[in-house]
Amino acid sequence: MTTTIRYADLVDSVAAALQYISYYHPADYIEHLARAYAAEQSPAAKDAIAQILTNSKMCAEGRRPICQDTGIVNVFLKIGMDVRFEGFPGSIEDAVNDGVRRGYLDPDNTLRASVLSDPLFERKNTKDNTPAVIHMSVVPGNTLDVTVAAKGGGSENKSKFIMMNPSDNPVDWVLKTVPTMGAGWCPPGMLGIGVGGTAEKAMLLAKEVLMEPIDMFDLLQRGPSNKLEELRIELYEKVNALGIGAQGLGGLTTVLDVKIATYPTHAASKPVAMIPNCAATRHAHVVLDGSGPAYMDPPSLDLWPDVHWQPDYNKSKKVNLDTLTQTEVASWKPGDTLLLSGKMLTGRDAAHKRIRTCSPRARSCRWTSPTASSTTSARSTRCVTRWSAPPARPRPRAWTSSPR
Question: What is the Cα–Cα distance from 292 to 173, expressed in whole angstroms?
Fold first, then answer.
C-alpha cells in the first residue's frame, strides 16, 4: 500500500528532532556514562564525568543545548519504495534543510549556526546551519525512516582514514592513531569504524554506525557471538587501556562503545575509517508512516544518576583572567580545577591568526563585542592601541585543565 509523506510533516519532524537532541542525551549514553562514573578511580576523570552528567541533566530540565557547538546536521533517509511525496515545493533535500532552518532558528531555543557556505575562500556563515549533509537510500517498504544527528566540529575534526594493505591489522592502526587525537574530541564518547568498500564508503560506514544504540555493557555481559563482536570488545578494552580518559584527564573510560560496520571491498584493498563521537552525542531516529509528523517522547529525569557536581573551592585555584601572567599559567598541571573570573576572549583559528597579525605580542587587539563567543570570526576583531575596559566581573566558574 502506498504511503503519502507530506512536506510539512517531514519539515516538522526534522525540526523537532533537532531541538530534541540539542538538550536530551540519548538514554543509552547516560546509562553507560553513569556506569563509567561509578567505576572511575581517577579523581580528575571522575570529576569530569560528574560535570558532564550534571550539565546533561540541567540541559534536559531547562531545555537548553548540551554543548555550545550545536553541530553540523547529518541526516540519513531510508525511503520506502511505496512512498510518495506530496506538497513539496522543491526537492527532498530542500525540505530537510527547511526543517534544519526551522529547528535552529526556533525562538524558544535558538541554536548556534556553524555552517559556512564556502569552505575555501569567504567562509561566510549561512546563519541558519543549512545545508545539512544528507544521505538517501531507497529500500523496500512504505515508510520514511529518518535519522538525524548534530555532529560537533571537535570530534568531526579528529576523523581518520587509511588505505591499508590487506594483511594489515586495523587494531594496530586504531591503537596507534587514537593517542594522536588527544582530547580535542571530548571523550568519553564512541568510536565508529568502517571497513571495506571504497574510501568514501568506509567513511560513510563509520559515520552511520555511530547512530546505533550503545550496547557494550550488554555485550560484555553476554559475551561475543561472532568475530565482529570479538573485535569490538578487543578495541573497547585496548583503547580504554591507553589511559586517555574523560576529557583527557586519565582514568578508566575513554570510550563507552566501539561500533564497526563492514562492506565488501576490492581484493587489493582494505579501506579503514574511524570517526569519534564526543560527550555531546546527539542523534535521533523517527519513522514517518503518513499519519503526520513524528515526535519523540522526552526521557524521564529519573534516568540520570544522583550526581550533583559542585566545584571544590578548597582544592581549586582562583584565576583572575584580567591579571593573569605567564608564570601563573606555567604552574597549572593536568587535573587542576580553575575557578575563572574576569574577561575571556575566545575564537577559532582564523581569529587567532588575525590577532597575531595585529601585534607580535597580540597586545594591540581587542574584540569589538564584550560578549564575544566561540562563534566569533576574524572579522569581529580590529586593531586598537589598548585593551577595552573589562566588563563587570562574573561569578567564578570552574574549569578543569587538560592536556591537548
Answer: 46
Predicted pLDDT of residue 189: 97
Instruction: List the Cα angle 97/200/172 in 5-degree steps.
Output: 125
Kindly state whether residues 259 and 304 are assigned to the same domain.
no
Same domain, 68 and 8: yes
Which residues of the chain have a pLDDT value below 50? 364-404
Alpha helical stretches, state H, 105-198: 153-156, 170-177
Q: Are residues 305 and 321 in the same domain?
A: no
List, as one string, the DSSP characters of 27-64: HHHHHHHHHHHHH---HHHHHHHHHHHHHHHHHHHHT-
Predicted model pTM: 0.85
266-318 pLDDT, tens digit per residue, is 999 999 999 999 999 999 999 999 999 999 999 999 999 999 898 888 888 99
Q: Kindly state the helix (H) or strand (E) to which residue 208 belongs, with its residue range.
A: helix 199-209
Cell of 4: 503519502
- 393 and 258 part of one domain: no
Counted residue by residue, the chain has a size of 404
Q: Would you say 21 and 284 are in contact if contact means Cβ atoms under 8 Å apart?
A: yes
164 and 242 co-located in one domain: yes
Query: Which domain covers residue 395, as residue numbers?
Result: 317-400
Tell me, yes or no, whether 7 and 93 share the same domain.
yes
From CA 317, how far away is CA 306, in angstroms rounded?
26
pLDDT at residue number 361: 57
For the chain, the domain total comes to 3
Q: Is there a single domain that holds both residue 259 and residue 358?
A: no
**126: burial class by Cβ within 10 Å (0-12, 13-18, 19+)?**
middle
165 shares a domain with 288: no
- For 312-392, list the strands marked E by DSSP: 317-320, 337-341, 365-367, 381-383
pLDDT for res 222: 97
